[in-house]
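EI: anyone free to look at a 324-residue chain?
SC: sure, send it
EI:
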Amino acid sequence: MTQGSSQTAPHRVVVVVDDNSNPFELGCATEIFGLRRPEIGRDLYDFRLCSPEPRTLMRDGFFTLTGVGDLDLVDSADTLIVPNRPDVEVPRRPALLTAIRRAHRRGARLVGFCSGAFTLAEAGILDGRRATAHWQWAKEFRTRFPSVRLEADVLFVDDGDILTAAGSAAALDLGLHIVRRDHGADIANAVSRRLVFAAHRDGGQRQFVERPIPDVPDESLAPVLAWAQARLDRPLSVADLAAHAAVSRATLHRRFRTQLGTTPLAWLTGERVTMACRLIERGEPRLDVVARSCGLGTATNLRALLRRHTGLSPSQYRSRFAAR
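SC: here you go
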């Protein structure tokens, strides 16, 4: 039940907040799906909060949430974000689990941030499905839910109608991924700019990325990333990136793994595909021109990579996201 840019009725996102829920992930959902977007010119989502009780004590008693809807709102959700409380050993409320199952049966998209995977698994809708959760709970999750295919070392998992993210900042990565899936690369980039948050991290990157304090000289990748992004229409190799950074290819690989959790080639390919998406959205109809302009070579290669990264063919992507 995702929404393309051609639809007029906003896609409704409902967040269920339960006792001891994490405020950070609630803030991420509100920032991405709930705020007005004057820079875009329209609201992307109809955003609602609900809770099983009139007063909800947030994690560790930081504050009490009041004035939100009740669980009946779950039945109107196109996308439902489930509770993500850190006391994963505490059983979820039966009424909440029933509401989640009901939403799943009618085709709502379900999202779990951090420990939200426990809520989805307890509802029984993750059996045989792919999911992720924060790395510190991976062992307990596998013990309790052996039928779920847990991927414990990724930022998020998009399994179609059920999406899960690892802890904290990965909620932003998954949220931006959902915006990109619903509204295209241009809109997702606009939201990420508003957040001052990098939009390039995909779900397959590692949860735990080491960021050691560098010795002098600074080992930041920012200069080489900016240099490559300005030259995506040209042939670029890992050797070219390493030469510009004045390091060996092995050192460049190490820095990408350490700072971004991916490889130089994977990052470069992802940037090229994002540029191709933006060109298609802006109305370029010739796939060979798009492929050459973003350094993907041929229309055949563009088709394969676009489907791999977005799940859509170029014609499907154009139909859903191109400006009219």
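EI: Residues 264-281 form the longest helix (18 residues).
SC: 👍
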